[in-house]
Amino acid sequence: MTMLDTHTDSPPRAPAMDRIDRKIIHELQRDCSISIAQLADRVGLSQTPCWKRIQRLEQSGVITGRVALVDPGRIGLGLTVFVEIEAPDHSPAWRARFVETVTGLPEVVGVWRMAGDVDYLLKVVMPDMPSFDRFYQRLTEATAPRNVTSKFAMERMKDTTVHPVNTTDP
């Protein structure tokens, strides 16, 4: 199974993690550019065991990548839009076309299949409204959704990639 598999009967099984593993995850989520020496010191290990734990967390799929976080406004992407999609049907063919389309659109930075009133929620970033209009036309032409509702973000109050990790329990 790969990270992109979307049709599994059960969620992937999480590897057994102790408090030190969770501390490593917590620290790397906050700043993955710290040195192994700094990380090892923060979590109470020597460097070699700390590095081995990081490798194990990567191999098991807990750590899926290391990135630099960028302020979208400072790189000319000042418009964030949350796009709700209602599918015209729930056939495998439509779903496959939809997934292929949205994963191929670089403006789409997040996609979730939802429960409730809408079927999919997209997070889209772009420079301005004319760019969004062009994006909207490409999206709707390629996927022919039943309905599309766009919600424009006025202010980003919190947007983090840091997941809450219990670093105190054993």
From TrEMBL:
One of its GO terms (molecular function) is sequence-specific DNA binding. GO terms for cellular component: cytosol. Keywords: DNA-binding, Transcription, Transcription regulation. One of its GO terms (biological process) is regulation of DNA-templated transcription. It holds the Pfam family HTH_AsnC-type. Residues 17-78 form the HTH asnC-type domain. This is AsnC family transcriptional regulator. It comes from Cereibacter azotoformans.
